[in-house]
Amino acid sequence: MIRLKYLIFFFLTIPLSLIWAQDNAVTVSGRVTSNGNPVPYAAVYLKNGNLGVNTNIDGQYQLEIPIGEHILEVASQGFRTNSKNITITSNQNATLNFELIEDALGLDEVVISATRNRVERRSAPVVVSSLKPRLLTATQSISVAEGLNFTPGVRVETNCQNCGFTQVRLNGLDGAYTQILLNSRPIFTSLLGVYGLEQIPTNIIERVEVVRSGGSALYGSNAIAGTVNIITKDPILNTWEIGSNMAIVGGEAWDRVVNFNSSIVADDLSSGVTFFGAYRNREAYDANDDGFTELVELRNTTVGAKAFFRPTDRSRISLNLNAIREYRRGGDRLELAPQFTDITEELDHDTFIGGADYEIDSKDGTQKTQVYTSASYTNRDSYYGGLGGARTRQDSLLANNAFGTTKDLAWVNGVQITKTFNNKDVLTMGAEYNYSATEDQIPGYDRLVDQNVNTLGGYAQYEWKPSDQFSALLGTRLDNVNVFGNYSVGGLERDLDLNQTALSPRLTLSYKLTEAWRLRAGYARGFRAPQTFNEDLHISSVGGEPQFVLLSDDLDTEFSNAFTGSVNYSKTKDLLQLDVLMEGFYTLLEDPFTLVSTGAALSNGSILEEVRNGEGARVYGSNFELGLSPDPEWRFQLGGTLQKTEWNQPQILFESDGSPGESDIVIDEFVRVPDFYGYLNTTWIPSEKFNVDVTGTYTGNMTVPRVISDNGFLELNDSGSFFDMNIKLETHFDFNESFMITLSAGVTNIFNSFQDDFDIGPGRDSDYVYGPDAPRAIFFGLKFGKLH
Would the pLDDT of 216 be above 70? Predict the structure, then answer.
């Protein structure tokens, strides 16, 4: 049966059925199928022409074309594009049927993150990696955080035993260098960046597009390492699905998930709405039996809807709304109120995300105008602290200081115009206004982050295609950034009032040597204005005391210059698909933001870290990806990253205050970044009734700092390497076209490749975490509904 996730989004394309009939034309009709099943809403069109239609719900089409010789082409998301020659010599109608083969490697997939327009991934001027629900399901990924590792250059790491803080590293750079987008909008705030990757369930995701290196010309600041665009599901057909997964982690902690999806689409395809939701309840897990968590207790409820409406044949309005309620807690004695424990990190999030888009096409189909607004708001209650292992009345009073609140808002408004010339060149222009406001306070520790960022940006991009072989993408973005911030902790205060204008140019060249070989090269300039980012909002625990981050007095803007080059070989022959990518990257950082442990203890007992400008750094290496599908029954994917991260001058990681036995700790390379990491994915689908997935990730050796004294003194340890392998078996039962059941079972982290030297006790360094995010787990799953 044809899976919905592979059907083309008919409402994301210019309605081909609007093209008018011509004189001296005849009707060509037929049916588009795959494995004997109809392919709804496939695009049937004349190649290098402007005539086309979409198939109906039964895969049937009728198209009037003029007399002559033509190439008729059929395209549908999730299938390989197919074409046939047809010669019309008289006024007699003709019949032409098409059989499509599944696009197992996504070579003909349409993506939007490369150019902010819809282009075929294989021919896009910028390399785009795409994660689809098929892979997220195969890897048993419950949230986005668990699935992103299966993309070249991407590594998601957990940074805290007490709260489970995760961040995504792209090409070796930490989370603040990556622009995370939700439905192409930059509303993933600094606060959402702390825990948000675990707050978005995979059952609401249509796909995740990753663009590595230099996206600033399109998406503004903070896209130095690249962009991760999370695209949620659109309504396509009338369907419904209810699913449940249950896993036992480490043989003792239960992880329970229930989710649902439902779509309703009007008969005339003029409107549709999809509803989705997920509930997750994961118990805390203690890996070394010291009474303190390594995996936090987690309860997450997500509900949302996405809808579209077509006022006319050339316009479309779309709306989306998501509500997330998440509670997480780690530390010891979770049954007690947090202030009566030795150490607790407790977070209670209420998040609302919504947006609206209006698109309209010109009558001749050469211009598209889009107006949009999108926003996210998070209200959080937090607790970072405890008794630190003591039981005196004074310690009990100090423990009450650790309660805090956070309010976080992001709002983006924009307009974009896309104009196509001669069916080849594309001009894209737009303007955006981004506003964010963060207020994070812990009164008991005199901790305050009160920050407002206003960004007004304009961008222009021209895609020049002088021939079928060569294309050039030239763009630039001009941003005026105003940051006003007040930052204080333990009596120390910092103020920031910055108004800066930055120009971010971008150039990408693409040359098609043959139909199979393509070369790409690019350059991009990026910047990050001084402000508090997600890592700075995460509060870790050391020696039973919170560790706070403060901006330095003279923090300057950070700039980057990113260079990329790649060679891509893609081949489709009969049932065979082969895709090989080799990509090199070289990024120079000017005045990079660095985090320095000062060795100073504040008057309230907390430890201070400071963000300063470094002496400059370079990150370089290569990403590779191999995809092979000899036929739709087998799929193999392998990818990885080999890289180096170096400071131009030795960088201070810990600044000693002169205490006995302590000295400055300096480093030449980035910490927590392995020189090599990668993934693999193997799928066997012997029939529509059964499939087996074997997946895994490899994390190479890296240097990890560990705090070993109450004032933050460090030692540098080698992590060793990890290979995390999973297996999943799935079987399907089709009772009729309206009801299907899917059963699944498997094991994640089969070899239990997991960190074995966690810090212990109430005074532990909670940030001393590396390797896979969880030990071995056994899981079972059930889905039922109208899935096809």
Answer: no
Q: Which residues contact 340 (CB under 8 A, 6 or more apart)?
A: 333, 387, 396, 399
- pTM, 2 dp: 0.89
**Cα angle, residue 198 at apex, residues 197 and 200 outer, rounded to 5°:** 75
C-alpha–C-alpha distance, residues 584 and 586, integer Å: 7
622 C-beta neighbours (distance < 10 Å), count: 17
Residue 201, CA distances (Å) to 98, 184, 258, 350 in order = 36, 17, 11, 15
- The string of pLDDT tens digits covering residues 277-297 is 999 999 999 999 999 999 999
pLDDT digits (tens, 9 = 90+) for 416-453: 999 988 878 899 999 999 999 999 999 988 889 999 99
Distances (CA, A) of 504 to 12, 215, 216: 29, 9, 6
Q: What Å distances lie between residue 95 and 26, 40, 62, 63, CA to CA?
A: 11, 18, 9, 10
**64, 70 in Cβ contact below 8 A?**
no
Tokens of 650: 């030795």
CA distances to 69, 79, 314, 756 from 51, rounded to whole Å, are: 14, 21, 16, 63
Question: Do the beta carbons of residue 678 and residue 191 sit within 8 Å?
Answer: no
48, amino acid identity: N
Q: How many Å is the Cα radius of gyration of the chain?
A: 27
Which of 499, 550, 40, 602 is closest to 265 using CA atoms?
40
* HEC string for 177-239: HEEEEECCECCCCCCHHHHHHHCCEHHHEEEEEEEECCCHHHHCCCCCCEEEEEEECCCCCCE
Identity of the residue numbered 643: Q
Residue 523 β-bridge partners = 507, 563
Which residues have CB under 8 Å from 333's CB, separation 6+?
291, 340, 341, 342
Q: Is the pLDDT of residue 256 over 90?
A: yes
Beta bridge pairs of residue 421: 425
Q: How many CA atoms lie within 13 A of 141 on its CB side?
A: 30
Query: Which is nearest to 134 in space by CA: 685, 578, 569, 574?
Result: 685
CB 365 within 8 A of CB 50: yes
pLDDT digits (tens, 9 = 90+) for 611-635: 889 889 999 999 999 999 998 889 9
Q: Is the pLDDT of residue 3 over 60?
A: no
Q: Are strands 576-590 and 617-631 parallel, antiparallel or unpaired?
A: antiparallel
Angle at 325 between CA 321 and CA 326, to 5 degrees: 135
φ, ψ of residue 27 to 5 degrees: the values are -95, 125
Burial (CB < 10 A; 0-12, 13-18, 19+), residue 391, is exposed
Residue 395, phi then psi, degrees to nearest 5: -65, -35
Exposure b/e, 225-263, CB count within 10 A at least 16 = b: bbbbbbbbbbbbeebbbebebebebbeebebebbbbbbb
3-class DSSP state for residue 395?
Answer: helix
Q: Where are the alpha helices (DSSP H) in 54-196?
A: 133-138, 144-147, 192-195
Higher pLDDT among residues 759 and 115, named by residue = 759
In 332-402 the beta strands, taken as DSSP E runs, fall at: 344-361, 367-385
* Residue 258: HSE in the Cβ half-sphere, 13 Å Cα cutoff: 4
